[in-house]
Specification:
Strand order of the largest sheet: 3-4-2-1-5-6-7-13
Number of domains: 2
CATH class of the largest domain: Alpha Beta
CATH superfamily of the largest domain: NAD(P)-binding Rossmann-like Domain
Number of helices: 7
Helix content: 25-40%
CATH architecture of the largest domain: 3-Layer(aba) Sandwich
CATH topology of the largest domain: Rossmann fold
Radius of gyration: 19 Å
Strand content: 25-35%
Structural class: alpha/beta
Largest sheet: 8 strands, mixed
Amino acid sequence: MASIRVVVQGVLGKMGLQVLTTLCGEDGLEPVGAVDLFADSNSIALPDGSGSVPVSTSIEGALSNADVVVDFTNADGALAVMREAAPAGVHAVIGSTGHQDATYQEAEALAEKHGTGIFIAPNFAVGAVLMIHLAKEAARFFEYADLTEMHNEAKVDAPSGTALAIAKAAIEGKGADFTAPAAEKEMISGTRGGTTGGVTIHSVRMPGRVAHHELTFGGLGQTLTIRHDSVNRESFMPGVMMAVREIVNRPGLTVGLDKLMGL
């Protein structure tokens, strides 16, 4: 069986480089190209020392030899990838976050029109996906919910896409909004964080963090805390590789690793 040929967009970023590194050791997957806005040469050495692949500063024209493109850049970069990949018959795995509803709608339309697969996930860590599932199951038993998410200082969007997915799952599981008491006297504006559906979300940004999410439900005389920590970027790779392998046989738009995990 032929290998799945993969192009990595955002290859000079921390996640992009980790994807390229992981691809080198995966049976049936072959890195064939890379894209990064800040590339200053026309090739990049493969991390395992097995050779090099072409690198471009633009997604345009970089997909001619690809089956799948993996994107870890930002919301704008991801949209550009999908717009370029779908008409070229290339499937897309999107790890960038911060998407608007309109992006999902356009992704679905592009995938259906061109018969390709587009996969978008707020988080590729299996544990984080299980956390989202557990949050939905537990939510109906509680009236209060606070969520803290922590990432590195360079993360652009806040709250994280995973935090929004956790909050959405909790609200759906409860079937109603949570109670979010406002401070009667807020000494510093914004201290209580932001709120969606009664789930209060706090975003922390500092060096030394990768991805950490902690959801605490509160009820009469008790709390329940669900927490997931990604302590390095390798934690996301099993999910990314799962998506790369599955999307070639999954036309249309798929949102969330839970769909591939059978949750």
